[in-house]
Design a protein that fits this description.
This protein has 4 helices and 4 strands. It starts with a helix and ends with a helix. The chain has a 4-stranded parallel sheet with strand order 1-4-2-3. The chain has 106 residues and is α/β, with parallel strands linked by helices. The radius of gyration is 13 Å and the shape is globular. Helices cover 44% and strands 16% of the residues.
Amino acid sequence: DIGLKGLQEELLRAVLEVVPAAELLERLRGAGHPPVGVLPRTVHVGAQEGRVVIRMPASPRLYARRLYAALHELDGLGCRRVLVEAVPTDPAWEGVQDRLARASHG
């Protein structure tokens, strides 16, 4: 776990966008120069050249634990754009929502 400070430093080099599930595949079509990182939770995103896909857990607790490591991994692979499937808005996901909001605003 690299923590928020390390994550913020990494995100100075990458653009992170939280995208509604219904829009994720469409956004990938216009994602720009590869490699592009993708963190889907419910949407099936197929492997394709120029795309690094890390499937995220369905559990808010496991998702929170995996998030920073996944972003660190994408950074290490040279992803300069990261599309993250938006998480549910119910209270169990508030911590994850906060982490994503902080990460997407650097």
